[in-house]
Amino acid sequence: MPKNTSKEQQSKPLRFVVIGAGMAGILSAIKLQEAGFTDFTIYEKADRFGGTWRENTYPGVACDVPSHLYNYSFSPNPDWTHVCSPGDEILAYFEDVAHKYSIEENTKFNTEISRIEFQDGRWHIETGQGEKDEADFIIAATGVLHHPSYPDIEGLEDFKGPLFHSARWDHSVPIEGKRVALIGTGSSAIQMTGGMVGTVSDLYLFQRTPQWVLPLPNPEIDEETKELYRTDPAAMQSAREELYNNFSDNFATAVIDANSPQLQMVEQLCKANLDTVTDPELREQLHPDYRAACKRLIMSPNFYEAIQDPSAHLITEKISRIEPNGIRTVDGKLHELDIIVLATGFRVDRFLRPIEVVGRDGVALDEVWAQRPSGYLSISIPNFPNLFMLNGPNGPVGNFSLIDVAELQFAYIMQLIDLVKQGRCQEVSVRQEAADHFEEDRVEATKNTVWVTGCRSWYLDDRGVPASWPWAFSRFREEMAKPKLEHYELVP
Ligand code: N01
After folding, report:
1. How many structural domains comprise the chain?
2. In the structure, which protein residues have their CB atom closer than 6 angstroms to any atom of ligand 1?
3. CATH number of 414's domain
4. Are the C-beta atoms of residues 402 and 391 closer than 8 Å to each other?
5. Of the candidates 79, 125, 169, 365, which lies 20 to 30 Å from 58 by C-alpha distance?
6. Nearest residue by C-alpha to atom 41 in ligand 1
7. Residue range 229-234: average pLDDT?
8. What is the pTM of this model?
């Protein structure tokens, strides 16, 4: 079939398919509406909005990015209850925003896209339910930390009690008065430790690697402040800006420069926090042997307090296997348990996958990404025209607000979409040379970061290169302000 001519393209409204109805999918829909595009569908495999906040419902779940920063810039929420609000409140916020902008009307829930192929100038979409669709553009808002990673521990199937991943919490299982094991010491496990101690009879935290923990108090926001934010949006905006600048100037600088004074400050704060642990043996067990922020930094108001509770037990012996009654460690000891929670993180190299994605001339994304995923500015892939990712590979991840990242990226993507809308071209994708050059520069810049100072972490790809944005956040903002069109292939 011949391609649409430029005239046809202009006479027909552009159609968009958004994959995923989490934070970035809802954002895409709102921004498409705002730009006057009405022909779009969000496909969501689950039955409600919310993405990561729909999936992560474990005890203690919260966002460790302060709430007044972790909301859309165009829909600030004066009613956040805490500096870092709990997960259910964040989920309710996203559902409210989706409702406010009537996004439901354009969303197909319980519908999982299984295959997309670029053919004859359009994307052809197939769902697992056998539906077919077409679109001029695909916006992949599929999330980063989405596919649970299950550990390769012998006997995982042998445990006779409930065993589940932190992102698949089984709410039919009561935890009150139970002996619960947490495997892992990432941000999820640290939040769960604070969330469960005092409720369970015994909490066993199986630690493979100790973590540096930055103390982040989480007080309630008082009524007076909420009322001020309700009546004076400028005051709320200035609170947001303060958080934003503080984060950009301090934390974002600390992680990209292992020799920065900002990183020294983070290290000092973490060390002083560790010193609050009174038992010297426990303190030593919790003491990491790598630099603070090498792994994704843990922010917690209460972890050390919780782990010092008499009902909490830090297990540092390596796990030997899981048995019907509990976990056996290599010292031969069986830790008898009622419930095991795998807080073992996510497969961070998936992005759009397992969707089968076929680009121009039959090129398969799975082959292009066989070694590892990549994307120019984390947004565009050569030979996959009119497909843009939000929070795609190697973007600013970690302790950044992914909402800010996605908003900046969408404004950038909109400028590329406009090229097609204006009839300047029909297909837009990054040139191979530009993508390669960007990746070379990126890999080179990661050498200055704290992420390569000697630790195991999910930031590191199969080569040990951080899969993240290694420059200042200000550079990201500058890059997102205006696409360098010479880096793009614009097919008329
Ligand atoms: O996962 P992780 P997470 N045997 O990959 C251990 C975001 N997040 O779900 O360190 C024993 O960090 C593994 O050990 P080690 C945030 O970006 C945000 O906790 O590799 N242990 C590690 O301790 C975060 O970084 C919020 O030695 C095993 C743990 O499992 C990201 O999600 C809240 C093991 C995995 O830690 C992921 O955090 C929560 C094995 N076989 C999460 N395999 C916010 O507040 C793995 N481990 C925004």
Report:
1. 2
2. 62-65, 145, 151, 153, 166, 183-189, 191, 208-209, 296, 319, 343-346, 456, 458
3. 3.50.50.60
4. yes
5. 79
6. 151
7. 97
8. 0.96
